[in-house]
Hints:
Blueprint: E1 2-7, H1 13-31, E2 35-39, H2 44-50, H3 56-63, E3 67-70, H4 77-87, E4 92-98, E5 111-117, E6 127-129, E7 134-136, H5 142-158, E8 162-167, H6 173-187, E9 192-197, H7 198-207, E10 214-217, H8 219-232, E11 240-244, E12 249-253, H9 269-285, H10 289-308, H11 322-339
Parallel strand pairs: 1-2, 1-3, 3-12, 5-10, 8-9, 8-10
Antiparallel strand pairs: 4-5, 4-11, 6-7, 11-12
Helix pairs in contact: 1-9, 1-11, 5-6, 7-8, 9-10, 10-11
Bound molecules: glycylglycylglycine.
Amino acid sequence: MYRISVIPGDGIGPTVTQHTKRLLLELSSAAGFGLEFIEAPAGDKIAAETGEALPRDSFQKIASSDACLKGPVGETARDVIVFLRQKLDLYANIRPFKTYRGVKTHWSGVDFVIVRENTEDLYKGVEDVGLDHAVSLLVITRRGTERIARVALNMARERRGKVTVVHKGNVVSSYRFFRNVAMEVLGQGGVSVDEMYVDNAAYQMVVNPAVFDVVLTPNMFGDILSDLAAGVTGSIGLAGSANIGENMGVFEPVHGSAPGLNPEYANPVATILSSSYMLGWLGMSRSDVRLARVSKAVERAVTLVLDEARVLTPDLGGRARGSEVADAILNRALELLSIE
Ligand code: GGG
């Protein structure tokens, strides 16, 4: 039995996490393993009720679980996910982006991963704000850069063998340091390595996204480029992600809580994909092939449903409810599991 803490979050979060839990329960029972979900409230709503965006009890539930599935939170991202990344040392933020045949975009055949350093940079939280000044320290360390560069290197070896280091080293010395340390690690790794200034990378991602395989970048650029990449691939409702450390992972959609959106019609794919990354990571860290099977089946089922384009939420031009999309993915995944 695996214990999964769940942060339902705000806005569309409780709905998309509910669809995902339902799908995971069915698939885990079909594949022969157990999942126990432990609710760990965090975000704007619980902050309004208790004064704390991440109550101690929720943090303890998350820290003592096998993995965490997190819905989006509203204005309290800093106190919830940025805090969790630091506290649990979830130094690698992995964000895959790809196009699907049934999703209208300018491009086809796009498939790249942003590997974002997740604990340093301007998000470190070393700040001083006075009446007439505000300072936020940009922190980059050798240890932090080396370990994220190793993640990018290993990922490139399993993919098309290319890493693009994205930085702003022509203007900011700390980003030059990130670039130099990353190059030291990548240079010995037997993969092809290039580099781009972040402004050019933003442009290339729009006009020529096929040049990217693995994008290695510091924390804030990774945050910003993720939304850009999601736009290029059709909808931020499709972008899942993993926050991974040595012994713990928190898995969350890239999107926010979308307070203006009717939750019934919110796209659950980003959270469903995040849950598949969760099972993949958990399966690997616990050497349990049953979880890896379900993880692969979910990813494949998402591709089939999106390629087919019969059941799509409004962000993709369809009319389906999120629950219908989740059902379509679940049914495809069950079929895939039964014919293996
Ligand atoms: N625009 C997507 C969004 O709202 N993401 C939530 C967020 O800001 N997360 C903070 C982070 O990923 O660093």
